[in-house]
Amino acid sequence: MLRRWTLTILMAACGVLVAVAQLAADMPAVGGAELLIFLALALLLSPWAFPRSVAAAEAQRASAADGRPIVYWRPGCRYCLQLRFSLGRLARRAHWVDIWHDPAGAAAVRAVADGNETVPTVVLGGQAVVNPNRAWLREQLRSS
Predict the structure, then answer these.
(1) Count of the separate structural domains present in the chain
(2) Which structural domain range is residue 111 located in?
(3) Among residues of the chain, what percentage have pLDDT more than 70?
(4) Residues 73 and 119 in one domain
(5) Which residues form the Glutaredoxin domain (predicted)?
(6) CA distances (Å), 91 to each of 49, 50, 63, 69, 110, in order?
């Protein structure tokens, strides 16, 4: 569980340290600005930047029922973050599974990615696509 938040905590702690150093150097405006930058980075690297994650089994059941794709991801993955923000509001239409939170999700990714936990991995209609084309996924979400 803590692994999901490690980068977030690290970014926030670095921001506080930089801000304190700037305050000690009598530069509070610079310290405040840098703190805000680090906190924004911490938010982007956190699980909060993604739609609510569900368990792999729940995502598989829901996908079978509604035909929407399952996106396997993990916090701190820059490719997952790029995919998430390129989808915009369409991201809510997919079923998101955090592989660091759900061991069954990690196992599902390893099964289709030659034993690696390569994310993002999208499963749609029984077909898995590792590191999918963003335009392709947007089109799949629009049509589902």
Answers:
(1) 2
(2) 51-143
(3) 99
(4) yes
(5) 71-128
(6) 11, 8, 14, 10, 23
